[in-house]
Amino acid sequence: MTFNEHLPALQVIVPLLSAPIVILLTPRGLAWAAAAASTLFSLFIAIALAMTTVTGTALTYDLGGWEAPYGITLSIDAFSSLLLLIVTGAGAVAIIAGKASIDVQIETHRQPLFYSAWLLALAGLIGMVISADAFNIFVFMEISSLASYILIAGGPDRRALPATFKYLITGTIGATFYLIGVGLIYMLTGTLNLADMEARISEVTSLNPLLAAAGFITIGLALKAAVFPLHVWLPNAYTHAPHMVTAFLAACGTKVAIYVLLRFNFFVFQANLPEHAVQFAFFLMPLALLGTVIASAVAMFEGHLKRLLAFSSVAQMGYVLIGASLLNASGLMASVIHLFNHAMAKAALFLAVASLAIRFRDLRVDELAGAARTMPWTCAAFVVGGLSLVGIPGTAGFISKWLLILSVMDHGHFGILLVAIIVLTSLMAVYYVWRVVEKLYFAAPRLSNVRVNEAPLTLLVATWIVALGNVAFGLYPELPLTLASHAAETLMEHPR
Questions:
Q1: Region for 2 from its dihedrals, namely left if φ exceeds 0, alpha if ψ lies in -120 to 50, beta otherwise
Q2: Is there a domain that residue 428 lies in?
Q3: pLDDT class for 495, splitting at 50, 70, 90?
Q4: How far apart are CA 480 and CA 341, in angstroms?
Q5: Are 149 and 164 in contact, with CB atoms under 8 Å apart?
Q6: Per-residue pLDDT at 276 exceeds 70
Q7: Can you tell me whether residue 74 is helix, strand or coil?
Q8: What does the alpha-carbon distance between residue 216 and residue 176 come to, in Å, rounded to a whole number?
Q9: What φ, ψ does residue 61 adopt, rounded to 5°?
C-alpha cells in the first residue's frame, strides 16, 4: 500500500500516539510545539482526504487487513471529510493561536498534561467521525469525553469543577443510552459494523427491539449534542472552561455527536424501519423549534459573553435538526452545510472572546464597554463572526440559512410557519449580537479599560484568518457545498 492509502489510519493514530509522548516534554513550550505539530499534521491529512472525497469517492481502511465484519473498518466519505475539516481545523487554529491564552490560564508544570488531554480529545472526535464500527464509536466517544472533562476543569476558574461534574454525569448517561442501543442491535443482528448492521436489520422479524434501540441511540447522542432540552451541561461548561478549550469544543464537539446521530438514523435505521422516519421527525422537529426560540430568547438577556454564545450554540443547532427532520435531500444538505458554517462563525467569535479575555478579566457584556476604542481589530473580528452567525449575505452563515429556508418552503403552510420561526430567531440573533456590538463600540469605556491594548499578534492573526474564512466561504462556498451535497445524497440513497 502507498503512503496515501494509510492516511485514514494516520488521521487518528498520529494524535492518539502523540498524547503520551507530549506528557514527557517538560521543557517550557516543547509540549505545545509537539501538540501543535501533531494537530497540524492531522489537519493536512483531513485536507488531503477532503480533496479525494469531494468527487464523491468513499475511502475504506481495514485495520490489520481484517475486513468487516470481522475486523475494524475506517470509512471516509464526503460527510465525514467535512467533519474532519471542522475538527482538525478547530483544533489547529485554537492550539496555535491560543498559546498566550493557555500560558496565562494553565500553570507551566501542568501544560504537558493539558496538551496530552487536548490530543486525546482530538483523536477521540476524529475516531468518532471515521469509525465504521458502532462499538468503536463508543470507545472514541469515551476517549474524547474523558479528555474534554480534563480540559474544561483544567483552568483557573474553580466554577469549572461543578460544570465539569454536570457534564460528566450527563455525558455518562448519554454514553450509557448509546451503548444500550448498540447492545440491542448486536443482540438482534450479531454485528457491530454499520454497513453490515444495516444489511442485517432487514432480516430481523421483530421490529420493536430495533425501534427501542433507535430511541436509546438517538436520545444518548442528543444528550452528547446538547439538543434542547438536553443541553443543561453546555452553558456552564463553555463559560468556565479555559478560553481556547471553549473555542475548540464549541466549533466541533456537538457537531460530531450530531454527525453520528444522523449516520445512525439515516444510514442504519431508516432504510429498513419505515416507522422510524416518522418517529425521528416527530421527536426532533419540536425540540429543534423550541431550542431555536427558547435558547435565542435566553441569549437575548444573558449578561455574560461566553454564556450568551453558549446559548446561541444551542439555538443554532436547532437549525441543523430542523433541516434533518424534513427527511429530504435539500434539508439534509442545509443541515450539513450549517454544521460547517456555524463552526466557522463560532470559532471566530470565541477566538475574539479569548483575545478580549487576555486584557479584560471579567467577560460580562457591561464590563466590555468601549473595548473597540483600544482593541479595534479584535472587536472587528467579533463583528464579522457575529454577522455570519446572524446570516448576513456575504457570509457563510447566510448560505446555510438560505438553503434551509428554500428546503422548508416546499412544505406548504407548515413550511411557512418554519420560515417565520427561522426569520424570527435570526432577528433575535441580531438583537443579542447587537447588544455586544453596542457595548464594544458605542458605550463609554470604564476607567479601568482606558489602557487596554490589542491581543497578542498570533492570536489576533488566527482570529482574523477564521473571521475572513466566514467571508471567503460565504462568497465562494463551492467546497463545503459540494461535500454537503454528496453527504445528503449518501444519507438519502436508501429508499424509504
A1: beta
A2: yes
A3: very low
A4: 9
A5: yes
A6: no
A7: strand
A8: 9
A9: -140, 120
Give, as one character, the DSSP assignment of residue 108. Answer: G
**DSSP SS3 for 76:** strand
Q: How many CB atoms lie within 10 A of CB 12?
A: 25
Does residue 229 have a pLDDT over 70?
yes
Cis omega (within 30 of 0) for bond into 456: no
Alpha-carbon distance of 453 to 375, in angstroms, equals: 6
Q: Which domain holds residue 480?
A: 3-491
Count: domains in the chain: 1
Q: Is position 228 within any domain?
A: yes
Sign of CA dihedral 43, 49, 52, 57: negative
Structural domain includes residue 496: no
Cα–Cα distance between 446 and 418 in angstroms, integer? 43
C-alpha cell at 167: 457534564
* Pair type for strands 73-76 and 59-62: antiparallel
CA 66 to chain centre: 31
- The per-residue pLDDT for range 9-31, each reduced to its tens digit, is 888 888 999 988 988 887 777 88
CB 277 within 8 A of CB 326: no
* Omega before 229 within 30 of 0, i.e. cis: yes
Distance between CA 260 and CA 280 in Å, rounded?
A: 14
Query: Which residue type does 87 have?
Result: V
